[in-house]
Amino acid sequence: MNIKKIFFEATDGVELFGLLHLPENRNADIVIISVHGHSSSGIENKREDIIANTLTQNGFAYFCFNNRGSMFARKLKINKNGKIERSVGGASYDIVTDCHHDVIGAILAMQNFGFEKFILQGHSLGCSKILITVEELKLKNNTEILNSICGYIFLSPVDSKKFIVEQNSEHTKEVYKLAQEKLKEGKKYSLIKNAILNTDTSATAVVNIFDNIEKISIATESDDNAFERFENLNKPFMLCYGENDYTIQKSEDIINKFSSHFSSHKNLFCVIKNANHSYEKQEGNLAEKILTYCKNIDL
Question: Global pTM?
Answer without folding.
Answer: 0.96
